[in-house]
Amino acid sequence: MTSTTQVAASATPPASTPVFSVDGLWKVFGPKAGQIPGDPELAALAPAELRARTGCTAAVRDVSFDVRKGEVFVVMGLSGSGKSTLVRCLTRLIEPTSGTIAIDGEDVRAMDKGRLRELRRHRAAMVFQHFGLLPHRSVLDNVAYGLEIQGVGRSERRARAAEVVAKVGLDGMEQRRPAQLSGGQRQRVGLARALAVDPEVLLFDEPFSALDPLIRRDMQDEVVRLHQEEGRTMVFITHDLSEALKLGDRIALMRDGRVVQLGTPEEIVGSPADDYVREFVRDVPREQVLTVGSAMRPAADGEASAGPVVSPAATVSEAIDLVAAEGAPARVVDGDRCVGVVDADTLLGVVAKGDAGGGPSAGGRGPVAQSTAHPDTDGDGPSHDSGTDLPTTVPGPASDSPATGAAQAGTAAPRERGEAQPPAPRTSPEGV
Ligand SMILES: Nc1ncnc2c1ncn2[C@@H]1O[C@H](COP(=O)(O)OP(=O)(O)OP(=O)(O)O)[C@@H](O)[C@H]1O
User: Fold this and answer.
1) Which protein residue has the closest C-alpha to ligand 1 atom 24?
2) Residue 383 Cβ contacting ligand 1 at under 6 Å
3) How far is the CA of 237 from the centre of ligand 1 (A)?
4) Which of 9, 42, 193, 275 is buried most, with the most CB atoms less than 10 Å from its CB?
5) Is beta strand 201-205 parallel, antiparallel or unpaired with respect to 233-238?
6) ipTM for this model
7) 387: CA distance to ligand 1 center in Å?
8) DSSP one-letter code for 315
9) DSSP three-state, residue 432
10) Residue nearest atom 7 in ligand 1 by C-alpha distance
11) Nearest CA among 193, 209, 263 for reference residue 382
């Protein structure tokens, strides 16, 4: 047994300066939409009743949140929950009905056409599921297109485009036409095109929904890599819980236009805000998302000074590997302070009981279930252009845990944010 074995901390949390600041946002479609937010009785109606009484759909209902600089902010929810409408409101691709939106403190709703164009071109670039690549242009020229409409000169934009094409792993394909690329490669071109204009924030509207699962995972890894390398702020829409947990620093979970919970993956999985969220996350392997900080107990006499060391930010799964390999409890050390101890019982308790996580509503779920039941949705189909060809299952075997193996060798690998890949539910929510 060694006392120096250590599981390192996750990536440093992003700074907290907001890029986007959204307050009391509503988007209502339908006749006299503007009356709904200000009428407490109508505003409180359930979607079906609101439609029956007024003919209106409240796609976004009184939503408030900040997107912090450098974070991946995921907007997640079932089909029709309002994800696309919400994110399109950020740059007024859809006009909000009421509420405020600011980017770096500037009022987006007060922007004139020119300022809005500048916002969409330079500051908040959108990556769509269907990119609308220009078919007769080469990869390089497609990527350079955004710079072209910004008026950047030919040689400069081609040099910048070549740089970004290489960054997304398409070097050697610069002269191909979109038709000569696979679906995943086309997605990379779209991503490169958005990156080429070097926006402050990238908005992704379900960009990988149409990709087959392996390519989809590649693209997710690409986003994680780009984020880690560049620290760029990203807002990422997905209906896929596995994708949300993998990519998100924080997740806003939407239902019927409202954000029902906003939190880190650990908060969402460990402390679901209500039964809806609990049901949503019930198939997630908690040990891959929850951290030892939420599973430790106080150190007993003598325990604080010996034994393997684990960071409070390491996952329960990583700590299980470490404790099993070392055959001893591990000290949870924050900086140079021992803040607690995890042993086989406390760690397995998280897996077996499913009630760790410290939140007020985290208990009572019983054993980790393999049910295919999921929350139902309002059933409204989307009406925008992000497409509806959504996959119904997403793979992600538990054996992908990055720490497995390394810990068995006595030197547990650090968990980097984005590497935990909890398997998706056997049937994803929209599949029922
Ligand atoms: N232009 C529109 N007119 C009327 N209703 C709309 C319009 N656009 C969206 N809606 C409705 O608003 C609600 C939210 O739609 P939205 O497309 O934002 O959901 P979503 O969560 O992005 O769905 P998906 O995952 O299927 O893309 C749905 O009930 C939808 O039918």
Assistant:
1) 79
2) yes
3) 13
4) 193
5) parallel
6) 0.98
7) 11
8) B
9) coil
10) 383
11) 209
187 ligand 1 Cβ < 6 A:
no
Q: DSSP code of 203?
A: E
Determine contact, residues 419/365, Cβ cutoff 8 Å. Answer: no
Ligand 1 geometric centre to CA of 288 (Å):
32
- Assess whether the C-beta atom of 242 lies below 6 angstroms from ligand 1: no
Residue nearest to atom 30 of ligand 1 (CA): 382
- Going by their DSSP bridges, the two strands 72-77 and 250-255 should be labelled as parallel
Nearest CA residue ID for atom 9, ligand 1: 383
- Please report, for residues 201, 269, 337, 422, the alpha-carbon distance to residue 265 in angstroms, rounded to integers and kept in the order given: 21, 6, 26, 11
Say yes or no: CB of residue 59 within 6 Å of ligand 1.
Answer: yes
Compute the distance from residue 345 Cα to the ligand 1 centre, in Å.
Answer: 46
- For the full predicted model, state whether its pTM sits above 0.80: no
Q: Is 84 in the pocket of ligand 1 (CB under 6 A)?
A: yes
Instruction: Please choose, from the candidates 222, 201, 203, 202, the residue with its C-alpha nearest in 3D space to the C-alpha of residue 211.
Output: 222
Residue 427 CB–ligand 1 contact under 6 Å: no
pLDDT value of residue 262 = 97
> Among 21, 125, 19, 67, which residue's Cα sits nearest to residue 250?
67
Q: CA separation (Å) from 168 to 130, 172, 267?
A: 18, 12, 32
Task: Give the amino acid at 145.
Answer: Y
- Which alpha helices (H) appear in 197-295, and where do they start and end? 213-230, 241-247, 265-270, 275-280
- Nearest atom in ligand 1 to 77's CA: 21
Q: One digit per residue, pLDDT tens: the chain, 432 residues?
A: 334 344 444 444 445 569 999 999 999 999 989 999 999 999 999 999 999 999 999 999 999 999 999 999 999 999 999 999 999 999 999 999 999 999 999 999 999 999 999 999 889 988 876 667 899 999 999 999 888 888 889 999 999 999 989 888 888 999 999 999 988 888 889 888 888 888 999 999 888 877 778 888 888 888 888 888 888 899 999 998 989 999 999 999 999 999 999 999 999 998 999 999 999 898 888 888 999 987 899 998 888 888 899 999 899 999 999 999 999 999 999 988 899 999 998 898 888 755 444 433 333 222 222 233 344 434 333 333 333 332 222 223 333 333 333 333 333 333 344 333 333 333 333 222
Centre of ligand 1 to C-alpha 374, Å, is: 20
* DSSP for 16-85, written as a single string: --EEEEEEEEEEEESTTTTHHHH-HHHHTS-HHHHHHHHS-EEEEEEEEEEEETT-EEEEEESTTSSHHH
* CA atoms of 280 and 173, how far apart (whole Å): 41
